[in-house]
Amino acid sequence: MATWPQTADGQTLIYPHITPDERLKVLNEMAWDGAHSPVVRAVVAKALSTLPASPSTRAVFQRLLDAVFETVVYRPDPASDQDFYQSTTLTLRPVRGNPVSPLTGQPKGTGDCEDSSVLFAAFVWAAGAMLNRPYRGDVRWLSQPGKPQNHVAAVACDTADGCLWAETTLPGSRIGEHPYDALARLGMSERIEGQYLPT
Fold first, then answer.
1. pLDDT over 60 (residue 59)
2. Which residue of 2, 123, 152, 172 could cross-link 64, Cys pair, CB 3.0 to 4.6 Å?
3. Segment among 3-17, 22-36, 56-70, 89-103 with least mean pLDDT
């Protein structure tokens, strides 16, 4: 398991001055570590138990994406010039007042786009290990031309079938649907994570 700088809660990472490539490396390391968390593996096992025998890769990935929405409520980071990243365990930690998760029976956790993307990628890695399938989950930047910041999304990959987008902040998004297409289809406001889409 990797070790990163932490805040007083012992799990949230703060990165004020590292490059986008360095941030992406940290996020993907967090996903890999999260895949080995007993908390993550318990959620994945419960989610997979609802699938029929021998599910398709797409069905598994969609179930894992739905599991993100069933366990996490979107909450942006506090406004600042720093990015706050949190472990999968902290993202899944029950928050009093949140709706109850059908997978855990406890209040849902909270996180922003980085946190939910890391969680989904961890779910994919964990599911691959449990099902003995060649799955990998990755966190990726989505550039927004003319904008100072990027949105973070995730992809799920199977070495035989390729990779599929996963928009982890918009409940109702579909596996394989580009995040901006999900935004348009769901009729949401023209922004993700407070950052406007290119026109």
1. yes
2. 123
3. 3-17
pLDDT band for 194, please (50, 70, 90 cuts): very low
Residue predicted with more confidence, 84 or 144: 84
The three-state (H, E, C) secondary structure of 56-108, written as one string? CHHHHHHHHHHHHHHHEEECCCCCCCCEEEECHHHHHCCCCCCCECCCCCCEC
- Chain center to CA of 77: 15
Q: Which parts of the chain fold into alpha helices (H)?
A: 20-34, 38-48, 57-71, 88-92, 113-131, 179-185
Label residues 25-51 b or e (16+ Cβ within 10 Å = b).
ebbbebbbbbbebebbbebbebbbeee
More confident residue, 15 or 191: 15
- The angle formed by the CA atoms of residues 188, 23 and 86, to the nearest 5 degrees, is 70
Phi, psi of 120 (to 5 degrees): -60, -45
- Straight-line distance from the first to the last Cα atom of the chain, in angstroms, rounded to the nearest whole number: 41
Burial class (CB in 10 A: 0-12, 13-18, 19+), 179: buried
Predicted structure pTM score: 0.88
Contacts of residue 75, defined as CB under 8 A and 6 or more positions apart, other chains included, come to: 110, 111, 112
Task: Evaluate if residue 144 carries a pLDDT over 80.
Answer: no
